[in-house]
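From the pipeline queue, job 12 of 40. The input is one protein chain; the requested action is below.

Action: predict structure.
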Amino acid sequence: MKVTSRIEPAGRRTFLAGLAAAPLLGAFAARAQSRPLVSHPDGGFRFLPGSPVFASGAVAEPGFAIVHALLSRWLPLEQGYELVERHLQTLGRPLQALCGMQLRLPRQLSIEEFIAFNAPYIARLERWDVVQDKANPVSRTNVSPAAEAPGEASLHAFTYTIPYSGSARTFTMSGMTERGSGGSIVAQGDDSPDGMQRKLAHVLGAVGDRVAELGFGWRDATHVELYSGVEIPGALAALAARASGALPRGVRWYYGRPPVTGLEVELEARAVLREEVVGA
């Protein structure tokens, strides 16, 4: 099962390896302290810094809105990157308009494998001139499907900004898992009903905090997406209690796990102007 196709220079590998001591690359951390959003003028959005690998979230600037592009079928990453380039070019949007990526992996990875996997991804963003002052503005969600996983790392969807004169406010964010403060995992190794409920409760709180940090509430979300490869008893009741404002639009559940071994639950939310299906 192919995860990455080439080895990056030692300097980048060393740089990424240093991130392993953090709460698993930042975006997996639980509740973040309030931080200012960074303007990305070429992209038409502001982003919440996370780690060199992915941002914590992005909010469209006035005069712009976020669109979610869902691929009609998964594409291996290199082909997926080419699709992103063509799609944005066709719309007359710069690559800097890219503010979110959703990836699918063949299997869960060790931390060391995940670090190695991220190196060519970062190199791609650098070639696209997307990285701003060494800060990565692109949010990202990584999932290992529990069934029908791809043979190699693939692109599932991406988000980008377009000019917009209306009043709708839009945002996207990176997926968050049950990794808590200090890098600890909530109910580590426990996939019992009680353990899974504890994990979900933590992730709901973390995502709620992140959405609020971006200046939104659950009621603003057009999409809430839950990833788990293990059944979570009472999940709907938990969602109704903690994310009730988003329920009129429903919740998508994916049979899959976070990208790193030891994690079982991932959750993300977004508010977009529209969702489109892009032919792959």
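Job complete. The chain is about 25% helix and 25% strand.
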